[in-house]
Write a structure and sequence with these properties.
By secondary structure, this protein is an alpha/beta fold. It contains eleven helices and 13 strands.
Length: 335
Protein backbone atom coordinates (compact mmCIF):
# COMPACT_ATOMS: atom_id res chain seq x y z
CA UNK A 1 0.00 0.00 0.00
CA UNK A 2 1.35 3.42 -0.89
CA UNK A 3 -0.08 6.88 -1.04
CA UNK A 4 1.21 10.41 -0.81
CA UNK A 5 -0.22 13.91 -0.73
CA UNK A 6 1.37 16.70 -2.78
CA UNK A 7 0.18 20.29 -2.50
CA UNK A 8 1.74 23.05 -4.62
CA UNK A 9 0.79 26.73 -4.38
CA UNK A 10 -2.78 25.88 -3.42
CA UNK A 11 -5.23 28.80 -3.19
CA UNK A 12 -8.98 29.02 -2.85
CA UNK A 13 -10.88 32.32 -3.10
CA UNK A 14 -14.53 33.00 -2.28
CA UNK A 15 -16.41 36.03 -3.60
CA UNK A 16 -19.16 37.69 -1.61
CA UNK A 17 -21.33 40.79 -1.86
CA UNK A 18 -20.95 43.63 0.66
CA UNK A 19 -24.27 44.29 2.36
CA UNK A 20 -24.89 48.02 2.85
CA UNK A 21 -27.11 49.17 5.74
CA UNK A 22 -30.60 50.53 5.31
CA UNK A 23 -33.16 50.36 2.50
CA UNK A 24 -31.16 52.63 0.17
CA UNK A 25 -28.06 50.56 0.82
CA UNK A 26 -29.91 47.33 0.09
CA UNK A 27 -31.30 48.81 -3.16
CA UNK A 28 -27.83 49.97 -4.20
CA UNK A 29 -26.39 46.54 -3.41
CA UNK A 30 -29.03 45.04 -5.69
CA UNK A 31 -28.39 47.45 -8.60
CA UNK A 32 -24.65 47.97 -8.22
CA UNK A 33 -23.31 45.23 -5.94
CA UNK A 34 -19.86 45.62 -4.44
CA UNK A 35 -18.04 42.30 -4.40
CA UNK A 36 -15.00 41.32 -2.37
CA UNK A 37 -12.71 38.34 -2.72
CA UNK A 38 -11.48 36.56 0.35
CA UNK A 39 -8.84 33.82 0.31
CA UNK A 40 -9.59 30.90 2.62
CA UNK A 41 -6.33 29.29 1.44
CA UNK A 42 -3.47 31.22 -0.13
CA UNK A 43 -0.37 29.72 -1.78
CA UNK A 44 0.01 26.68 0.49
CA UNK A 45 2.67 24.08 -0.34
CA UNK A 46 3.45 20.88 1.58
CA UNK A 47 3.88 17.11 1.13
CA UNK A 48 2.80 14.11 3.17
CA UNK A 49 4.92 11.00 2.60
CA UNK A 50 3.42 7.51 2.32
CA UNK A 51 2.87 6.05 5.78
CA UNK A 52 3.17 9.42 7.54
CA UNK A 53 0.69 11.02 9.94
CA UNK A 54 0.73 14.80 9.52
CA UNK A 55 -1.18 17.17 11.81
CA UNK A 56 -2.61 20.18 9.95
CA UNK A 57 -3.11 22.78 12.67
CA UNK A 58 -4.38 26.32 12.97
CA UNK A 59 -7.03 28.42 14.72
CA UNK A 60 -10.66 28.44 13.59
CA UNK A 61 -10.96 29.93 10.11
CA UNK A 62 -7.30 29.28 9.27
CA UNK A 63 -8.09 27.26 6.12
CA UNK A 64 -7.70 23.69 7.39
CA UNK A 65 -11.12 22.40 6.40
CA UNK A 66 -10.97 24.17 3.03
CA UNK A 67 -7.66 22.44 2.32
CA UNK A 68 -9.14 19.04 3.20
CA UNK A 69 -12.21 19.70 1.04
CA UNK A 70 -9.93 20.38 -1.93
CA UNK A 71 -7.89 17.23 -1.26
CA UNK A 72 -11.04 15.12 -0.99
CA UNK A 73 -12.38 16.55 -4.26
CA UNK A 74 -15.27 18.52 -2.76
CA UNK A 75 -13.84 21.91 -3.79
CA UNK A 76 -11.80 23.04 -6.79
CA UNK A 77 -8.86 25.37 -6.06
CA UNK A 78 -8.66 28.85 -7.51
CA UNK A 79 -4.93 28.36 -8.19
CA UNK A 80 -2.23 25.79 -7.60
CA UNK A 81 -2.52 22.03 -7.75
CA UNK A 82 -2.82 18.97 -5.55
CA UNK A 83 -2.35 15.23 -5.97
CA UNK A 84 -3.53 12.48 -3.64
CA UNK A 85 -2.05 9.03 -4.30
CA UNK A 86 -1.15 10.28 -7.78
CA UNK A 87 -4.68 11.53 -8.56
CA UNK A 88 -5.86 15.13 -8.99
CA UNK A 89 -8.83 14.90 -6.59
CA UNK A 90 -11.07 17.61 -8.05
CA UNK A 91 -10.59 16.34 -11.64
CA UNK A 92 -11.01 12.60 -10.98
CA UNK A 93 -13.44 12.53 -8.10
CA UNK A 94 -14.58 8.92 -8.45
CA UNK A 95 -11.04 7.56 -8.72
CA UNK A 96 -9.96 9.75 -5.81
CA UNK A 97 -12.87 8.49 -3.70
CA UNK A 98 -11.57 4.92 -4.02
CA UNK A 99 -8.11 6.02 -2.83
CA UNK A 100 -9.19 7.91 0.27
CA UNK A 101 -11.14 7.53 3.47
CA UNK A 102 -12.52 10.56 5.31
CA UNK A 103 -13.99 11.21 8.73
CA UNK A 104 -15.49 14.59 9.65
CA UNK A 105 -16.15 14.85 13.37
CA UNK A 106 -19.57 16.52 13.07
CA UNK A 107 -20.85 14.46 10.13
CA UNK A 108 -21.44 10.78 9.46
CA UNK A 109 -21.31 8.69 6.29
CA UNK A 110 -23.54 6.04 7.83
CA UNK A 111 -27.28 5.71 7.19
CA UNK A 112 -29.09 7.35 10.09
CA UNK A 113 -32.03 4.92 10.36
CA UNK A 114 -30.16 1.69 9.58
CA UNK A 115 -28.25 -0.59 11.95
CA UNK A 116 -24.47 -0.23 11.76
CA UNK A 117 -24.08 -3.69 10.23
CA UNK A 118 -26.33 -2.76 7.28
CA UNK A 119 -24.47 0.51 6.65
CA UNK A 120 -21.23 -1.45 6.42
CA UNK A 121 -22.87 -3.88 3.98
CA UNK A 122 -24.01 -1.00 1.74
CA UNK A 123 -20.50 0.47 1.74
CA UNK A 124 -19.11 -2.97 0.88
CA UNK A 125 -21.30 -3.06 -2.23
CA UNK A 126 -20.59 0.57 -3.20
CA UNK A 127 -16.83 -0.01 -3.15
CA UNK A 128 -17.15 -3.56 -4.53
CA UNK A 129 -15.17 -5.09 -1.68
CA UNK A 130 -15.09 -8.92 -1.82
CA UNK A 131 -17.13 -10.45 1.00
CA UNK A 132 -14.18 -12.35 2.47
CA UNK A 133 -12.03 -9.19 2.62
CA UNK A 134 -14.93 -7.22 4.06
CA UNK A 135 -15.46 -9.78 6.82
CA UNK A 136 -11.74 -9.91 7.63
CA UNK A 137 -11.51 -6.11 7.93
CA UNK A 138 -14.57 -5.95 10.14
CA UNK A 139 -13.01 -8.53 12.47
CA UNK A 140 -9.81 -6.46 12.61
CA UNK A 141 -11.72 -3.23 13.28
CA UNK A 142 -13.85 -4.96 15.91
CA UNK A 143 -10.72 -6.13 17.74
CA UNK A 144 -9.36 -2.57 17.79
CA UNK A 145 -12.52 -0.50 18.23
CA UNK A 146 -14.95 -2.95 19.95
CA UNK A 147 -17.72 -2.44 17.42
CA UNK A 148 -19.67 -5.68 17.80
CA UNK A 149 -21.37 -4.49 20.99
CA UNK A 150 -23.53 -2.18 18.85
CA UNK A 151 -23.52 -3.93 15.42
CA UNK A 152 -27.31 -4.00 15.30
CA UNK A 153 -27.98 -0.56 16.81
CA UNK A 154 -29.43 2.11 14.56
CA UNK A 155 -26.95 4.89 13.88
CA UNK A 156 -29.30 7.53 15.32
CA UNK A 157 -29.15 5.74 18.70
CA UNK A 158 -25.34 5.58 18.93
CA UNK A 159 -23.38 7.76 21.33
CA UNK A 160 -20.88 10.20 19.79
CA UNK A 161 -17.94 7.95 20.62
CA UNK A 162 -19.66 4.88 19.17
CA UNK A 163 -20.62 6.73 16.00
CA UNK A 164 -17.13 8.07 15.34
CA UNK A 165 -15.62 4.61 15.88
CA UNK A 166 -18.08 3.27 13.31
CA UNK A 167 -17.24 6.13 10.94
CA UNK A 168 -13.53 5.29 11.23
CA UNK A 169 -14.24 1.68 10.34
CA UNK A 170 -16.53 2.73 7.48
CA UNK A 171 -13.87 5.05 6.05
CA UNK A 172 -11.35 2.19 5.93
CA UNK A 173 -13.55 -0.68 4.76
CA UNK A 174 -12.32 -0.33 1.15
CA UNK A 175 -8.66 -0.25 2.32
CA UNK A 176 -7.70 3.28 1.13
CA UNK A 177 -4.02 4.29 1.21
CA UNK A 178 -4.84 7.88 2.31
CA UNK A 179 -7.10 8.97 5.18
CA UNK A 180 -8.36 12.47 6.02
CA UNK A 181 -9.53 13.14 9.57
CA UNK A 182 -11.13 16.51 10.32
CA UNK A 183 -11.59 16.90 14.09
CA UNK A 184 -12.46 13.19 14.50
CA UNK A 185 -12.45 13.11 18.33
CA UNK A 186 -14.24 16.37 19.05
CA UNK A 187 -16.55 15.99 22.05
CA UNK A 188 -15.35 12.50 23.00
CA UNK A 189 -14.53 11.34 26.50
CA UNK A 190 -10.89 10.58 27.31
CA UNK A 191 -11.29 6.79 27.24
CA UNK A 192 -12.73 6.70 23.72
CA UNK A 193 -10.19 9.29 22.54
CA UNK A 194 -7.34 7.02 23.59
CA UNK A 195 -8.99 4.05 21.89
CA UNK A 196 -9.23 6.05 18.64
CA UNK A 197 -5.59 7.16 18.96
CA UNK A 198 -4.46 3.56 19.35
CA UNK A 199 -6.45 2.65 16.26
CA UNK A 200 -4.84 5.45 14.24
CA UNK A 201 -1.35 4.48 15.42
CA UNK A 202 -2.05 0.94 14.26
CA UNK A 203 -3.22 2.13 10.84
CA UNK A 204 -0.09 4.23 10.30
CA UNK A 205 2.54 1.94 11.82
CA UNK A 206 1.16 -1.46 10.90
CA UNK A 207 -0.87 -0.73 7.77
CA UNK A 208 1.26 2.07 6.33
CA UNK A 209 -1.65 4.42 5.69
CA UNK A 210 -1.02 8.10 5.04
CA UNK A 211 -3.07 10.23 7.44
CA UNK A 212 -3.80 13.97 7.38
CA UNK A 213 -5.30 15.02 10.71
CA UNK A 214 -6.80 18.32 11.81
CA UNK A 215 -7.48 18.83 15.51
CA UNK A 216 -7.44 21.38 18.32
CA UNK A 217 -6.46 18.69 20.83
CA UNK A 218 -2.73 19.15 21.46
CA UNK A 219 -2.54 15.90 23.42
CA UNK A 220 -3.66 14.15 20.26
CA UNK A 221 -0.94 15.91 18.28
CA UNK A 222 1.78 15.00 20.78
CA UNK A 223 0.76 11.34 20.86
CA UNK A 224 0.18 10.81 17.15
CA UNK A 225 2.16 13.23 14.98
CA UNK A 226 5.87 13.69 14.49
CA UNK A 227 5.39 16.51 11.98
CA UNK A 228 3.07 19.51 11.94
CA UNK A 229 1.97 21.96 9.26
CA UNK A 230 0.65 25.15 10.84
CA UNK A 231 -1.63 27.48 8.86
CA UNK A 232 -3.09 30.82 9.86
CA UNK A 233 -5.16 33.33 7.87
CA UNK A 234 -5.02 30.90 4.96
CA UNK A 235 -1.23 30.89 4.74
CA UNK A 236 1.34 28.30 5.72
CA UNK A 237 3.18 29.51 8.81
CA UNK A 238 5.35 26.56 9.76
CA UNK A 239 6.19 23.08 8.51
CA UNK A 240 8.36 20.99 10.79
CA UNK A 241 8.66 18.40 13.53
CA UNK A 242 7.33 18.96 17.03
CA UNK A 243 10.91 19.38 18.27
CA UNK A 244 11.54 22.10 15.68
CA UNK A 245 8.35 23.91 16.65
CA UNK A 246 9.22 23.77 20.32
CA UNK A 247 12.70 25.04 19.54
CA UNK A 248 11.28 27.99 17.56
CA UNK A 249 8.32 29.00 19.75
CA UNK A 250 8.61 27.13 23.05
CA UNK A 251 11.69 28.62 24.69
CA UNK A 252 10.17 28.97 28.18
CA UNK A 253 11.63 25.80 29.69
CA UNK A 254 13.57 25.40 32.93
CA UNK A 255 15.75 22.58 34.23
CA UNK A 256 15.91 22.37 38.04
CA UNK A 257 18.64 20.22 39.59
CA UNK A 258 19.95 19.37 43.04
CA UNK A 259 23.75 19.10 42.99
CA UNK A 260 25.57 16.33 44.80
CA UNK A 261 28.11 18.94 45.95
CA UNK A 262 26.38 21.98 47.43
CA UNK A 263 29.57 24.03 47.03
CA UNK A 264 30.38 23.09 43.41
CA UNK A 265 30.97 25.98 41.03
CA UNK A 266 28.14 26.34 38.50
CA UNK A 267 28.63 28.19 35.23
CA UNK A 268 26.43 28.72 32.14
CA UNK A 269 26.63 26.17 29.33
CA UNK A 270 26.38 26.81 25.57
CA UNK A 271 22.86 28.15 24.94
CA UNK A 272 21.95 27.57 28.60
CA UNK A 273 21.86 30.29 31.26
CA UNK A 274 22.09 29.84 35.02
CA UNK A 275 18.86 31.47 36.22
CA UNK A 276 19.30 30.95 39.93
CA UNK A 277 21.28 29.18 42.66
CA UNK A 278 20.37 28.40 46.24
CA UNK A 279 22.89 26.08 47.89
CA UNK A 280 22.74 22.71 46.13
CA UNK A 281 19.73 23.76 44.02
CA UNK A 282 20.32 25.36 40.63
CA UNK A 283 17.91 26.47 37.88
CA UNK A 284 18.89 26.58 34.19
CA UNK A 285 17.01 28.10 31.27
CA UNK A 286 17.54 29.25 27.66
CA UNK A 287 19.91 32.17 27.15
CA UNK A 288 18.14 33.42 24.01
CA UNK A 289 20.96 32.62 21.60
CA UNK A 290 19.54 29.68 19.71
CA UNK A 291 18.86 27.66 22.83
CA UNK A 292 18.69 23.86 22.74
CA UNK A 293 15.52 21.93 23.47
CA UNK A 294 14.77 21.14 27.09
CA UNK A 295 15.87 17.52 26.57
CA UNK A 296 19.18 18.61 25.04
CA UNK A 297 19.68 21.02 27.94
CA UNK A 298 18.92 18.30 30.49
CA UNK A 299 21.47 16.01 28.86
CA UNK A 300 24.11 18.77 28.86
CA UNK A 301 23.53 19.64 32.54
CA UNK A 302 23.66 16.00 33.69
CA UNK A 303 26.83 15.37 31.72
CA UNK A 304 28.49 18.49 33.22
CA UNK A 305 27.39 18.19 36.86
CA UNK A 306 26.76 15.37 39.31
CA UNK A 307 23.13 15.69 40.38
CA UNK A 308 20.91 13.85 42.85
CA UNK A 309 17.55 15.16 41.67
CA UNK A 310 16.18 16.78 38.52
CA UNK A 311 12.90 18.35 37.40
CA UNK A 312 11.72 19.91 34.13
CA UNK A 313 9.32 22.81 33.67
CA UNK A 314 8.34 23.14 30.02
CA UNK A 315 5.76 25.12 28.08
CA UNK A 316 3.07 22.70 26.96
CA UNK A 317 2.21 22.34 23.29
CA UNK A 318 -0.84 24.61 23.60
CA UNK A 319 1.43 27.45 24.78
CA UNK A 320 3.85 26.75 21.95
CA UNK A 321 1.08 26.81 19.33
CA UNK A 322 -0.37 29.97 20.81
CA UNK A 323 3.00 31.65 20.44
CA UNK A 324 3.21 30.42 16.84
CA UNK A 325 -0.24 31.87 16.06
CA UNK A 326 0.76 35.24 17.51
CA UNK A 327 3.83 35.32 15.26
CA UNK A 328 1.87 34.12 12.22
CA UNK A 329 1.67 37.53 10.54
CA UNK A 330 -1.19 39.59 9.07
CA UNK A 331 -4.28 38.15 7.49
CA UNK A 332 -4.60 37.73 3.75
CA UNK A 333 -5.89 40.92 2.20
CA UNK A 334 -9.29 41.04 0.62
CA UNK A 335 -9.62 42.37 -2.90
Amino acid sequence: MSGSIEVRGLSRAFRSTVRRPGFAGALRSLIDPERVTKYAVSDITFDVAPGELLALLGPNGAGKSTTIKILTGILTPTAGEARVAGVVPYQERERNARNIGAVFGQRTQLWWDLPVRESFAILRDIYEVPRAEHAARLREFDDLLELSAFWDTRVRHLSLGQRVRCDLAAALLHDPPVVFLDEPTIGMDVVVKEQVREFLRHQVEQRGRTVLLTTHDMTEVERLAERVVLVNHGRLVLDGTLDEIRRTYGSTWQVRVTLADAHAAVVPLPGIALLGRDGPRAVFGPDGSGAPTVHQALKAVIERYEVTDVAIDEADLEDVMRAAYVHAGPAVEEA
